[in-house]
Amino acid sequence: MNDLNKCYKTINSSPPTVGFGAFFVMSTGRLLPSLTRKLLVHFLVLINLFQSPEVDCLESTPTIENEIEGMDEWIYLSVPTATAGSNVSKKCLQHTEKYLKALESRLPWAVQMYESSGRLFEDLIHIEGSDSVHHEPGLFDECLFVQSDGVPFQGQYCTVFFDLKPVKEEETNVNHIENISNTSTDEQLNDGVKPVENNYNYQKPSVGFCLPSTCSAGDLRSAVAQHVGYRTIKETNFSIVTVANENYCYTQKKIDTSRTTFDNVTIAVLFAFSLLGITVATATVHDIWKGKNVTKSFAIQLLYCFSAKRNCATLFSAEESKESLSCVHGIRVLSICWIVLIHVGGAFTVLRLIYNRQMVIEKTVKFENQFVANGFFAVDTFFLMSGLLVAFKKLRQLDQNNGIFNLKRFYSHRYIRLTPVYAVLMAFVATLHPYVGTGPDWNLVVQKSQTLRKTWWINLMYINNYVNPVKNWWTNPEMPIGENWYLACDMQMFWLSPLFIYPIWRWRRTGVIWTVCCLLVALGISAIVLFVHDLPATICWLRPSDMAKINVYADKHYAETCARIPPYLIGIILGWILYKTKDKPIYIHKCLVAAGWMMATLFGLIVTYGMFPYLDEATVPVINPWIRVSYGVLHHSAWAIAVGWMIFACTHGYGGLLHQFLSWKLFVPLGRLSYSVYLIHLNYTFAYVSHLRKPYYFTEMSAAVNYFGILVISFLLAFVVSVTVEMPFINLDQLLFENKFKALQKGKKKT
C-alpha cells in the first residue's frame, strides 16, 4: 500500500492532465469494473513515467495490481467493518463480506445499503482551529428498508460519535496508540468511571453507518477505531475516542418489535385514555341529541361535564366575569408565545443535529436577538400573574365569607385545576411517547420516558425540585419534562400564599410589611447563593466560563422556590392594591403616569439588554462581582415590577392603545389554552428534533417556519387536551365541591 501511495503522490505531482486523471479514477472508481480500473491506473502510471522519468514507479506496479484488486480502499469509508480484523465478531465479518460481494455485483439492496451510509472522512472529524462539527448522517429510512431474501440480515442504521481524550506524554509511543484509539466513552472506561449523561455528549462529530444487522455497536466501535487514532493538534496530544451505543442502532425489526410490545403500564394508560375518549364521545353525542330537552339530573350533569359541545362553547366564549382583569389575557398569551420561541430556538441550537451552530451563536450574541437569548425571565411574568390572581380573588372571597379561609378547599381546588392535564401528559410521555415516531436521535425521547416512570409520583406531589431531583437537569437528557420545575415552584408558592394573603386582609399594613420583609429575605438568600457558588448572572449567557456553570446555576438558583418567589410576592402585593382600588376611580397626574411608563420601560430594557456589554469574554474577562450578583438577584423582580405597572396602568385606564390591544377578545380563549400549551410544546419540540433525519441548517426563514409551525400545533393539541381533560375536571370540581361549599356557607349564614 505504501508503494501505491508513492505512485499516487508521483501522479499528483505530475502535469494537470495526469493528476486529474488519477483523481477521476479515485473518485469514480466505484462505478467502473475492476479490470477497467486496473487498465486506467497502469495507463496513468506509464504516462507519468514518460513525463517524470526521474521518479521510478515501475517497481511498485505489481503491488498496485494486488492492492487495486478491487480498488476498494475508499469503500471502507462507508463500510468500516470490512477491515476490522479480529476485533469484530465472526458473524459480522462474514455478513459484511456478503454485503460487499453483493455490492460488487451491483445488487439493488446492496447499492441501497451503501448509499444509505455516511462516509468516514478522518480529517473532518476534528479540524484544527475550527469550532464547526462535521456530521455524515446517511439515510435513516432507506437503510431500515434494506431487505433481501438471499442474506440472513437486514439494514441497520448506527450512529458513531467522536470525542477527544487527552493522552499523557508517556502514552504517546507507538505501542499505546492502538489501545488508546479503541476506548469507548459509552461503556466503562479504563478507570471504571461511567461518563455523566449530558446533551452535549452527542453534539460531537458523528457518522451514520448502514451495516448488516448482525453487527453490534461494539463491532462498529472497534472497526471505526482502527481508522482513527492518535493525533496531535496545537502541540497537545490526544486520541480520538469512538463512541457507539446500542441505543443509537436501529433496525426495522427492532422498531416494529418496540411498537407492538406493550407492558402492563402502557396497556393500563391506553385503557384509561380510551375510556376517557368514549366518555367524551358519549357525553357529546347525548348533549347534541337531547341536551335541550333532557332532565338535568345529577347523573346527566355529571355526564355533561365531559361534553365537548359545551366545553367548546365555554372555551371559545369571549365573555369575562366582572372581577377579571382584562389585560391579563393578552399578557398571558404573548408570554406563552415568547416562551415557546425561546424553547424552540434553544432546542434547535442546543441539540446536536445542526450544521451551522457557530453561525447561530454569532447571531445569538447580537444586540437585537437578546430578547430570545436572554429571555428566560419571561416565566417571571407567570409567577407575577399567579400571585396577583390568587391574592386578588382570595381577598374578595374573604370579604364575602367574613374572613373564613377554608384551606382544604383552597388547596384542593388548585390541585384539581392543575393536576389532571399534568397527569395525562406524564402518562403519555412515560408510556406512549416513544411509540409516536422514529429517528436517529429518538433515544432522547426514550430516555425521558424511562426516567419519568421512576419519578412520576414526585412530580404529581410537586416536590420534584427538592425530592430526588434530576442532577444537572439543564443538560441531562434524562430530564423527563422540562417544565416541571416551574410547576413545582408555582405550587409551593401557592402553598405558602395564605401566610401572606390572610395577614394582608386581616391586619392590612402589618401584612404588607410582613410580605415585603419576606421578599427582601428571599433576595438576600439569592445573593448569598450566587456569591458563595460564584454563579453567573443568568442561565443563557454565551460566555464559556459561565456556560461551564450552567448546571450548578440551574440546580442552585434557577429552580429554587426561594430564588423565584420574589415576583410571586410582588404579584400578591399588586393583587392587594388592585383589590383595594379596582372598582374605585383613581386619578394619577400625567407626569406620574409618564414616569411610571418610563420606569417600566427602563426596567424591561435593563433586564433584557443590561448584560449585553459583558457577553464577549475576550473584551471583559472578569465581571465585577457586584454587577453579576446584583443582576442575578434583581432582574426577576425588576421584570415583575415592569409587568406589574403595565397591569395596574391598564386596569385603571392609563394603558391607552396597549390596553385595547391586550384586552382584545381573541386573547380570552387563547389565554385559556396557555397552560396546556406550556405543558405540551417542549415535549413536542424534543420529539420533532429527535426525529430529524438530516442535520438542520439555521436561517431566519427556516427558524420562523419551525417556530410558527410548532406554536400552531401546540395550540391545536392544547385545544384537544383542554376540551377532553382540563375543562371536564374543572366542571367536575365545580359540580362536586363548589356547589356543596356554597350550600354550607348559606347554611352557616342562616344559623
TrEMBL record:
Give the highest taxon in the source lineage: Eukaryota
Matching Pfam families, A to Z? Acyl_transf_3 (PF01757), NRF (PF20146)
> Key word Transmembrane present in the record?
yes
InterPro entries from the xrefs? Answer: Acyl_transf_3_dom (IPR002656), Nose-resist-to-fluoxetine_N (IPR006621), O2_lipid_transport_reg (IPR052728)
User: Which key words tag this protein in UniProt?
Assistant: Membrane, Transmembrane, Transmembrane helix
Q: What residue ranges are annotated as transmembrane?
A: 267-289, 331-355, 375-395, 415-436, 485-505, 512-532, 563-579, 591-612, 632-654, 666-684, 704-725
Provide the Nose resistant-to-fluoxetine protein N-terminal domain boundaries. Answer: 89-251
Question: What are this entry's molecular-function GO terms?
Answer: acyltransferase activity, transferring groups other than amino-acyl groups
User: Can you say what this protein is called?
Assistant: Nose resistant-to-fluoxetine protein N-terminal domain-containing protein
Q: What is the lineage of its organism?
A: Eukaryota, Metazoa, Ecdysozoa, Arthropoda, Crustacea
